[in-house]
Design a protein that fits this description.
This protein has 3 helices and no strands. It has about 45 residues and is mostly helical.
Length: about 45
């Protein structure tokens, strides 16, 4: 939600296949904030 700017209502309305497509896209092209987190070795 935060990475895409979606609201909770938009996520709830998203069809499941669209959600799976988004996950597949992120698997190939991770969001920049995750790449940076991995690059610097950030651990929560």
């Amino acid at each position: 939600m935060t990475g895409c700017g979606f609201t909770p209502a938009e996520i709830d309305a998203m069809p499941f296949p669209a959600y799976l497509d988004l996950l597949a896209y992120w698997r190939r092209n991770p969001p920049t904030h995750l790449l940076m987190k991995w690059y610097v070795g950030y651990k929560a």
